[in-house]
Specification:
The protein is mainly alpha-helical and about 190 residues long. It has two domains: about 30 residues; about 160 residues, Up-down Bundle (Ferritin), CATH 1.20.1260.10. The protein is about 80% helix and about 0% strand. The chain is built from seven helices and no strands. Helix 2 runs parallel beside helix 6, helix 3 runs antiparallel to helix 4 and helix 3 runs parallel beside helix 5. It starts with a helix and ends with a helix.
Length: about 190
């Protein structure tokens, strides 16, 4: 009985998420759409400290989502991808810390738009069962890495310090491109 109620609650929650996603896709000008969030984040960046803070925030969420994938997914490829995201984004976070130390900058976050978006995405998959988790996590990873790639490109144009621009272009961007391609390929092999 308890399991039946839990499945019903999860089903109802998924239906609400599907309705919300559908409404957003049908041309709603919701200010929390990924495009609006990315544009808002880019516009809020005032300094290299903001860029570094937002990079750290993106890495934080990728690490948390990767850890969740390792714990929740029934699919070994998804677990492996999650493990890779934890490893790679921990290394990217260390790279950001190194650039911040070199430039004597304390990373700042200009607003909570990115954190709010990422936390909502993680919450959206965290309640799914192991069988459903993999596909939805991979769909989230495609969205997250598309957003991060767009942010990185904008940050390259906005970065004031040459060493930050170089790090974004040569150290960070190539990893995000690879992550996005891997997420797209794995998602394409899975069923919703």
């Amino acid at each position: 009985m308890r399991n039946r109620l839990r499945r019903s609650a999860v089903g109802a929650a998924l239906a609400l998420v599907a309705i919300a996603v559908s409404a957003c896709k049908e041309g709603s000008k919701d200010s929390t759409s990924p495009e609006d969030v990315t544009g808002g984040i880019t516009k809020s960046v005032r300094s290299d400290a903001d860029i570094l803070g937002l990079l750290k925030e993106a890495n934080r969420a990728e690490i948390a989502a990767g850890q969740l994938a390792v714990l929740r997914s029934a699919n070994t490829d998804v677990k492996s991808f999650g493990t890779n995201m934890v490893t790679e984004h921990t290394a990217l976070d260390a790279t950001a810390d190194g650039v911040a130390a070199q430039l004597k900058i304390t990373p700042t976050v200009p607003n909570d738009d990115l954190a709010r978006e990422q936390n909502a995405e993680i919450a959206g998959v965290s309640g799914l069962g192991a069988a459903q988790f993999g596909y939805h996590y991979m769909a989230m990873q495609v969205t997250a890495h598309e957003r991060t790639l767009a942010l990185i490109d904008a940050f390259i144009a906005k970065a004031q310090a040459a060493s930050l621009r170089t790090s974004l272009q040569n150290d960070v961007r190539p990893h995000i491109v690879v992550h996005l391609a891997a997420a797209e390929q794995l998602k394409a092999r899975m069923s919703p």
